[in-house]
Design brief:
Elements lengths: L1 E6 L6 E6 L6 H5 L9 E5 H15 L5 E4 L8 H13 L7 E6 L1 H13 L5 E6 L2 H7 L4 E6 L2 E8 L4 E5 L8 H18 L1 H10 L7 H21 L14 H10 L8 H18 L6 H12 L16 H8 L12 E4 L5 E4 L4 H10 L1
Parallel strand pairs: 2-9, 3-4, 3-5, 5-6, 6-9
Antiparallel strand pairs: 1-2, 7-8, 10-11
Helix pairs in contact: 3-4, 5-6, 5-8, 6-7, 6-8, 6-10, 9-10, 9-12, 10-11, 10-13, 12-13
Bound molecules: glycine.
């Protein structure tokens, strides 16, 4: 079972292939992009040990690789320099293709390096985590973190192709897989109640069933492609993809970006809090937040603040951290709230008192 989703962005349009065994088909899929039989692979050591050999065999062309250390800390200025200088050492030319093999960190970093090398070379995303397959590999957001915060430096640079091979998800630790699932649930909650219903029925079986994984990834990518096609640079609708993220970013900062709370776990808790806030403001039915939390519980995921290990700062301190989110516009907090499951919208008209009440209730 496999599928192709097109991201229709005119001359920057590209296909996202979602399916099984795509690493083995990489040569056929990437080949048409190549000006010469050579690509440059940027990856990290854990992923390289598992998948680099299969990718190279599938590509069937010269594929020198740069292996970086795993982890969020790699997404920094030092490694941008490292990637760019390595590509120049390798004599990468303007017409060459960089391949990002890894999760969101590698995709964002290699994509940013590709965006600035020789004023922009093409790149192919080969996402190896569920989170990267359904979110970060699609849509062209690239960048790094600085000491001022996450993703504050970057560029919109669309990939030329995305290969989301769901077989590589077999090697993901269960917790990381579930964290990525937080972004999958987000799509149902923000814009597709029927998909959320499908996830309620099929989510628990997803990890063990590759065909269900293909469908979950394909549907998520199609939803993202539709939104990105409407609003490539986040002037409007694309902000819907930030459902749960205002809460999430504050919680990630409060937990020190550590394994106390993985990004997708923070998104899941953030979605639950966004629905609780929506219900408190009378925007959606009182049952909706319970339905969101019931599904997260069925998946074995964190669903409220009390379940995050360790102490959290006060509600006031968390609200303050939200104020440092880059989604603040002219000093006003922007939230994605919902009029029901699958009916999200963006607003900056949320009284601080209501946010504090939700944070106190957890
Ligand atoms: N991850 C949110 C976006 O791509 O816009």
């Amino acid at each position: 079972m496999s599928a192709v989703v097109n991201v229709p962005l005119g001359e920057r349009a590209y296909d996202v292939h979602v399916g099984r065994g795509l690493l083995a088909q990489a040569g056929d899929l990437v080949g048409p992009l190549l000006a010469r039989p050579r690509v440059f692979v940027v990856t990290e050591s854990r992923v390289a040990a598992l998948h680099l050999a299969s990718l190279r065999t599938g590509l069937g062309v010269e594929a020198p690789a740069l292996e970086l250390p795993p982890g969020e800390g790699t997404k920094d200025w030092v490694n941008v320099i490292r990637v760019v200088e390595w590509l120049l050492d390798q004599r990468a030319e303007r017409g060459d293709v960089v391949v990002a093999l890894g999760g969101g960190v590698i995709g964002d970093l290699a994509g940013f390096a590709a965006a600035i090398l020789r004023r922009g070379v093409r790149f192919v995303q080969v996402p190896t985590s569920l989170l990267a397959q359904v979110d970060s590999s699609v849509g062209g957001k690239t960048g790094i973190n600085t000491r001022h915060g996450k993703n504050l430096v970057g560029a919109f640079h669309q990939p030329s192709l995305v290969l989301a091979d769901v077989d590589v998800l077999d090697t993901m630790p269960p917790r990381d897989f579930l964290s990525g699932y937080g972004e999958v649930v987000k799509y149902g909650l923000l814009g597709d109640a029927a998909f959320f219903g499908w996830l309620e029925a099929n989510g628990p079986a997803l990890r063990g069933d590759a065909d269900l994984r293909v469908e979950a990834v394909r549907h998520s990518v199609q939803m993202k492609a539709d939104i990105v096609a409407r609003d490539e640079t986040e002037q409007g609708d694309r902000a819907l993809l930030n459902l749960g993220h205002t809460f999430c970013h504050a919680l990630e900062a409060a937990t020190g970006y550590s394994d106390r709370l993985l990004h997708g776990e923070g998104v899941a808790v953030g979605c639950a809090l966004a629905f609780a806030l929506s219900a408190r403001l009378g925007l959606c039915a009182q049952e909706d937040p319970s339905r969101v939390r019931a599904h997260l519980q069925a998946m074995g995921m964190v669903r409220n603040l009390a379940e995050i290990p360790g102490d959290l700062p006060s509600a006031e301190a968390l609200l303050d951290l939200m104020g440092q989110d880059k989604k603040v516009l002219a000093g006003r907090l922007r939230f994605v709230l919902a009029r029901g499951i699958g009916a999200a919208f963006v607003t900056d008209a949320v009284p601080a008192e209501d946010v504090l009440a939700i944070l106190r209730a957890g």
